[in-house]
Amino acid sequence: MMCNAAEIEAQAAEWLARRDRDDWSEQQQQAFDAWINAATAHRIAWLRLESIWQRADRLGSLHHPGRSAVPAAALFSQRYWRIAAGVTLVVGAAWIATIGLRDQPTQYKTALGQSTSLALDDGTRVTLNTNTRLWAKLASARRVVWLDKGEAYFEVTHDASRPFVVEAGSRRITVLGTRFSVRRDDDGQVQVTVADGRVQVSPTADGATAVPAIITRNDSLLAKGDAVLVSHETDQQTTSRLSWRQGRLVLDQMTLAQAAQEFNRYNKRQLLIADPVAAQLRIGGSFNVDNIDGFARLLEQGMGLKVARQGDIIKIYR
User: Does residue 76 carry a pLDDT above 60?
Assistant: First the structure.
């Protein structure tokens, strides 16, 4: 069940209070990592509250220079329940309002079958693929994007003083200036393709065994859990992989099952490969992402497969 914003804020407050106690354990760290990685909204809430209370701690030190400040998380442990009740914790009303507004990420999203391009405040251009949702926060120290789901292509404006970071599930992609795409699938798999430049891909969870990987032009990285696979591709293969930006789907000897999954990302009508032998047939070609009917006709007329249409399901079998 999806939590609302107030519940997530309360959970973040609880974690902040727990981490400040002396009995913090490795098991609690693992549970915290799982909570952080479960949803982009969790990470955003945690970063926002942690930032606010660290600043509150520093502000308290300034107001009382002769004594140690009360730890922010300790103050949180006494008051976090008020967040769940919808009450704003105040450390100077004007100050907290300014910090809160400044720290709020901006959300961008597309619907099924939709794509769009946009420019961030630093000049970075982002193209969102179908059914994609991300948040962006451009701060003075670094620029951060959280990819909650879907796929995005980035043309990052170079700024050596502010690294550009993309958080995608269990992976963190760090760059200074480059062109690359990040795709996050529902099963947790993350794919990074570099069109130009150089990026580092590392695990986000503390204690993960996967080591950071450096990938460059025409490299493609697949990551799921601790497993990481890096392959070097040709210019044409990279162009084909990024062809969705032109509304095209290039199938390079994919299995029919893989091709169906790709078409299904863009369309309300869904392909169902009902025959396990047919699912392993290889197919190539270039199609408009929304031309699912034309693809089905090709299978029927060019490969001799049978097609049955039942509402929004196009069933393929021998």
Answer: no
